[in-house]
């Protein structure tokens, strides 16, 4: 597991690349937090369009007490797994990536921490590999209402239905993908749209790894608008089935406003749902202390 020293903010961290046996040779990129000699405590998966580095300020204070890997998912950041948005139906590919990683990691069962899409992928993977998972902390995971989730798994009907009723996918496909520089992208995002509640440090970390350099000197989104849109549309996975099969404790921290998690009272007994006051879907950046406390308690 090669590591490259990296400085983020004031603290030295490490980049790692993780082999999951991809036939094409693709690898998962990750940021490591905590002492290398300590067994791994947790894996962290980001939201659609984000990167592992986006969560640096959330995870960095935990580095003295835990070993954590935050991973770039397929189609994001520096991960090199193939990401083809055509004919995509579900997030089962993201869950399979996580399962493959869990199967290759040594050590005891892990805590899975996931935000939004990353939370759903973590849930799906935990249902498949309960022996590799200790517990879960899910940050406003995407769990559709039961009827919408059922419709999303119906062949032929679902793709047309979701394309007609997915403003998020429409916004993603229209996103500006190229900027003259990261500084220009940061200036364009600060205080606007989805980023209006973000602290500057988290936004700067998102821009740092969320863009890659082009030969002409400009920068472009590492997660292409087509892949981001495909993630919004690909809702054919079975989150409710995974919840029924889940054999590990899970805490869901749900946004108070605009939550993507339809799970409230109708839940298995080992799943706890807490609505975090004053938060939106971006609660890891709006309520970092509450999220860190949840991770600490899960790692134990």
Automatic annotation (TrEMBL):
Keyword Hydrolase: yes
Organism superkingdom: Bacteria
Keyword Hydrolase carried by entry: yes
All residue ranges annotated as the AB hydrolase-1 domain in the record: 43-294
One example GO MF annotation: hydrolase activity
Pfam family name, one: Abhydrolase_6
Keywords carried by this UniProt record: Hydrolase
SUPFAM superfamilies on file: alpha/beta-Hydrolases
Record-linked InterPro entries: AB_hydrolase_1, AB_hydrolase_fold, Carboxylesterase_BioH
PANTHER family: HYDROLASE ALPHA/BETA FOLD FAMILY (PTHR43194), PEROXISOMAL MEMBRANE PROTEIN LPX1 (PTHR43194:SF2)
Protein name, entry field: Alpha/beta hydrolase fold protein
Organism: Methylobacterium nodulans (strain LMG 21967 / CNCM I-2342 / ORS 2060)
Lineage of the species this protein comes from: Bacteria, Pseudomonadati, Pseudomonadota, Alphaproteobacteria, Hyphomicrobiales
